[in-house]
Design goal:
Blueprint: E1 7-18, E2 21-33, E3 37-41, H1 48-55, E4 63-68, E5 71-72, H2 78-88, E6 89-92, H3 104-114, H4 119-132, H5 148-160, E7 166-170, H6 178-194, E8 198-202, E9 214-219, E10 222-225
Parallel strand pairs: 3-8, 3-9, 6-7, 7-8
Antiparallel strand pairs: 1-2, 1-4, 4-5, 9-10
Bound molecules: adenosine-5'-triphosphate and magnesium ion (MG).
């Protein structure tokens, strides 16, 4: 029996207008992603971040359609966007956006509380995930009291709190050396798999993700291989 794709993109196009004219960042891209971990790679400017932002509903496409786990994302009403971004997808931002005044535990629990979990339930779930990423000894630290790798692991735990079907990550190892990057990516692959989530990861460096199920190479907003 064929497996339903977790992400389905159909003639997806994103044009940016302004400045020096029109930039076609995503150029009529059609793609089905099976469940599991997919890595998006390719040179600077090829459209990786644009694609992540479209799938995460941070931006609207110029044309084409986006389906994620059965939700039609490109036409989602504004009133449903927050819920989609909080529960269907989990997001690891490039600069992580941890709240500086909150502890590690509070940061990870926050999306759970925003999605309607009580504080106790959200913190229990946060502890479960922080245990998986080896952050229990640091739960009461604030972000400025963490190393780069610890910040990344906290951000990964936070992205999983609401049991997302798909975790999106844009350059999640951008400022780590290659050993630390590999360690974080292996952890990311293991935890998303354990949690039953698929993942879509944009990175310049496909070598850091040896455990990807699929590697897609982009150039000029189109798929060149994968
Ligand atoms: N808001 C914007 N307005 C105009 N052009 C944009 C905008 N955002 C991105 N672009 C252009 O769209 C193209 C794709 O950008 P994108 O950020 O998706 O690339 P990327 O593959 O993530 O690159 P990098 O590896 O450097 O992060 C680039 O040519 C970029 O200049
Ligand atoms: Mg980018």
């Amino acid at each position: 029996m064929p497996i339903d794709p977790i992400v389905r993109l159909t003639t997806l196009r994103k044009e940016y207008r302004g400045g020096g004219g029109v930039v076609v960042a995503v150029n009529d891209l059609t793609l089905d992603l099976p469940p599991g971990m997919t890595v998006l790679t390719g040179p600077s400017g090829c459209g990786k971040s644009t694609l992540i932002n479209l799938v995460g509903a941070f931006d609207r496409p110029t044309s084409g359609t986006i389906n994620v786990a059965g939700t039609r994302v490109d036409t989602l009403e504004n009133s449903k966007l927050d819920q989609y971004r909080r529960t269907t997808v989990g997001i690891v931002f490039q600069f992580f956006h941890l709240m500086p005044a909150l502890t590690v535990l509070e940061n990870v629990a926050l999306p759970g509380e925003l999605a309607g979990m009580g504080t106790k339930q959200a913190q229990d779930r946060a502890r479960e995930l922080l245990d998986k990423v080896g952050m229990v000894p640091r739960v009461d630290h604030r972000p400025h009291e963490l190393s780069g790798g610890e910040i990344q692991r906290t951000a990964i735990a936070r992205a999983l709190v609401n049991h997302p079907k798909l975790v999106l990550a844009d350059e999640p190892t951008g400022n780590l050396d290659s050993t630390a990057s590999e360690r974080v990516m292996n952890l990311f692959a293991a935890i998303t798999a354990e949690e039953g989530a698929s993942a879509l990861v944009a990175t310049h460096d496909p070598d850091v993700v040896t455990r990807a199920d699929r590697i897609i190479q982009l150039r000029d907003g189109q798929v060149v291989s994968g």
